[in-house]
Amino acid sequence: MTETVLLVGGGGREHAIARAVADNCALYACASNRNPGIRRLADGFETIDETDAEAVADYATAVGADLAVIGPESALAAGVADALDEAGVYAFGPRAEEARLETDKAFQREFMDENAIPGCPDYAVFDDIEAACDYIDAYDGDLAVKPVGLTGGKGVKVIGDQVTAEEAKAYLRDSDYDRVVLEERLVGEEFTVQAFVANGEIRTTPAVQDHKRAYEGDEGPNTGGMGSYTDTGLSLPFMAEGDYDAAVDVLEAVVDALPDYKGVLYGQFMLTDAGPKVVEFNARFGDPEAMNTLPVLETPFLDVLTAARDDDALPELAFSGEATVCKYAVPDGYPTDPDAGAEVAVDEESVGDALLYYASVDEREDGLYTTTSRSFAVVGRGDSIAAAEAEAEDALAAAGDRVRIRHDIGTADLVERRIEHMAELRE
After folding, report:
1. CB neighbours of 130 closer than 8 A, spacing ≥ 6?
2. Dihedrals φ, ψ of 190, to 5°?
């Protein structure tokens, strides 16, 4: 019997999910944008706002979906998983209450505190901006300033890194945030671990290092993510023995405290001199991290989905043992003043052995054009990070004008700087 799967979302992350399941099921998709990569893989595509829970559930019922995968956090926050479950379509994604682990940063920290989840930094929650500013003045050290709700990875300001204390206070006073979280600045190297969760079980994927800053050398404003890399195993070159397992222990503690959680649980960690600390949790695949991990997953992703739905044990995961490097192409000026309308010059043939994932592009009769968001990503694979990086760079040779790429992601120099940084912190 062929499974019918509904995919919710139209970005690069969802293109990766579509490619991971399309060969093994009847695939339908819905999103507010028509991703050409997903549209070509799907048996049907409907333009629907991802946050319109009722419309998504109606479409799932209309196409006879057996299960659904939800990509974006906005859909989870809007209760799309709830609506699908209630319509009799198993949603591989947490219900809105459990998705608060991502969508409400105050809830996230309080949850960690109440359930003794390891790796929680010092924090304080404020619904009075002036009180938050007073806390900044009084705190002995640097702080990360975080709006409570979703900001697409662009709302956090870190004192001592991105802004001064005075700039942080000005940022808060100029904002319209109702609540903010202030927490100790964590110093180290960031990494993420994504896990498949269902039926009280957890299966983890290789660690990924994402690069949020817009410009090479980790300069500029934060973005949704400019690219990322994995190594040939589960860990990363700057991680010591036991660091990956410590991160997994955190995720397992979360699942123990939320036994009904289902979907992807994404832990973003700062590897400090005292081990991994939690930067945040996400309740879905990362973007770009999904594009690193799903292409090297040899266990059929559909097998994970059906086991979750059928209340079976999740399959043990097997990976190819390849390193990956993902690099995004974004419009010039992104993220502050993006220049849309450049023709996308790459295609599936021009990237060679690399993988091409479309994100936000405008499909016209005469071709694909950039919008104001991240445009497309390429993923190189190889028997080392260096080999994967070279493949990604080769694929980007035809990227054309009016797009910007962080060419330093996955390079030997960048990776070595990460290793040296952690060595210095651990001295």
Report:
1. none
2. -80, 145
Per-residue pLDDT tens for 74-100?
999 999 999 999 999 999 999 999 999
d(CA 161, CA 167): 11
Identify the DSSP state of 50.
T
Tokens of 215: 């410009």
Helices 129-138, 165-174: axis angle to 10 degrees equals 170
350 falls in which pLDDT band (50, 70, 90)?
Answer: very high
The alpha carbon torsion through 155, 161, 165, 170 (nearest 10 deg) reads -40
Name the band, by pLDDT with cuts 50, 70 and 90, for residue 382: very high
Q: Which residues contact 291 (CB under 8 A, 6 or more apart)?
A: 12, 13, 16, 228, 324, 326, 355, 357, 377, 379
Is the alpha carbon torsion for 291, 294, 295, 296 positive or negative? positive
| Domains of the chain and CATH, by start | 4-96 (3.40.50.20), 122-184 (3.30.1490.20), 189-417 (3.30.470.20)
The backbone torsions φ and ψ at residue 284, rounded to the nearest 5 degrees and listed phi first, read -160, 175
Q: Mapping DSSP to helix (H, G, I), strand (E, B) and coil, where does residue 139 land?
A: coil
How far is Cα 195 from Cα 202, in angstroms, rounded to an integer?
Answer: 6
